[in-house]
Amino acid sequence: MAKKKRRSMLYIPGNNPAMIQQAGVYGCDAVLLDLEDAVALNQKDAARILVRSMLETVNFYDTEVCVRVNNMQTPFGLADLEEIVPMQPDNIRFPKTESVQDVKDFMKEVRRIEKEHGIKNPKMTIHVMIETAKGVANVYDIAACEPRVDAITIGGQDLTADMGIVKTPDGAGIDYARKRIVMAGKANNLDVLDTVFADVNDEEGLKEETEYIKKLGFAGKALINPRQVDPVHEVFNPSENEIRKAYRVYSEFYKNTKAGIGVFAIDGKMIDAPVVQRAITVLEYANIDIKDIEKSLD
Amino acid sequence: MTPKFKAQAGTFESSDIMVLIEPVAEGSGRQVDISSTVMLQFEEDLKTCINQVLDVMEIENVHLIAKDKGALTPTIKARVETAVKRSLGIQEGTL
């Protein structure tokens, strides 16, 4: 089966029933039901009950469902976990992660609640969010400390605030953090997800930023408006030419491997393991299962 | 249980429901007043849904006013539960 794509992860305010009930039809790869920044302080209780109730009932179709809870240092973090963990959404996003101890404390509560509710083989994974300079400094250890973490993400707005700088369109202030977080994620086989692009009216700017983060190695981007889904997918989706090339590379690789040949050439260019891996990634983004290619060649 | 305070939850936005709760005298039971943009079609469903939550939470001696804007069942249940918990002083919120 092809790997789950996370090109687009759309934030939806946790206290907005109209948006939550439609979350499965926006066409994004994942929705982030937000109990943190998108919810007013005096509505935190209402939002967590609403999200829990929606998770019980609403059909999100193929869309991955992630819930961003409040940080454990706030009065809301633990209450969020008590409501949401028993529902076992696909993932929980843990904001403002600064250290390995933060992850351990968080996971201790998650595991306790799962045990209390008799959840024996939890499928729910964890996304850690790096939003402070301290978090960026510790990101290699954070990325490696917990097997249920399957994605790591950067929170650009909070990070620039923590650094005392302004988030500029060229992303200069968070460039080092982006690259460091990508390396930490890749070193631990995690998906790395980018921060939001705040100007929903600037489609060209969104595409430019998405092109850039794709080159860095990000698997996808957080979005704040359904209008941002298509432009981001456009950038992440491979072109027809790229798909044809990847198909040819993988087909030749499969045939040569069966014949016991490790390295081969296509049009005079050497094809080795990294080229094949890139081809597989392209095919995954094009929803082509390599098993189907293999079957067609057997 | 009997509500201790007046409380509300929800909004007047489309697909939401505003629920207001106030305690009434001991032995008064429940009074549920509903208005909805889909009253003709779903009045009974709304009443059933609201009463189910009140039953589960064992709430009596309450006057509940619901102003519905086409909320789905999970939203109605969530807003009633929130209003009840606020009225019992279990959670803080508005009003």
Concise description?
The complex is a heterodimer of chains A (298) and B (95). With 298 residues, chain A is α/β, with parallel strands linked by helices.
Care to describe what's here?
The complex is a heterodimer of chains A (298) and B (95). Chain A is α/β, with parallel strands linked by helices and 298 residues long. Chain A has helices at residues 17-21, 44-57, 77-84, 100-116, 133-137, 139-144, 156-163, 175-187, 203-216, 229-236, 240-258, 273-285, 290-297, and strands spanning 8-13, 30-34, 64-68, 91-94, 125-130, 149-154, 191-194, 220-223, 264-266, 269-271. In chain A, 40% of the residues are buried. In chain B, helix 1 (39-56) packs across helix 2. The two termini of chain B are 20 Å apart. Chain B has one domain (5-86): Ribosomal Protein S5, domain 2. Chain B has helices spanning 39-56, 73-87; strands spanning 7-9, 17-23, 30-36, 62-68. The radius of gyration of chain B is 12 Å and the shape is globular. In chain B, strand 1 and strand 2 form a beta hairpin. By secondary structure, chain B is α+β, with helices and mostly antiparallel strands. The chains are: A alpha/beta (298), B alpha+beta (95). The interface between A and B is medium-sized, with 16 and 22 residues. Chain B: Its EC number is 4.1.3.6. Chain B: It comes from Ancylomarina salipaludis. Chain B: InterPro entries: CitD, Mal_deCO2ase/Cit_lyase_ACP. Chain B: Keywords: Cytoplasm, Lyase, Phosphoprotein.
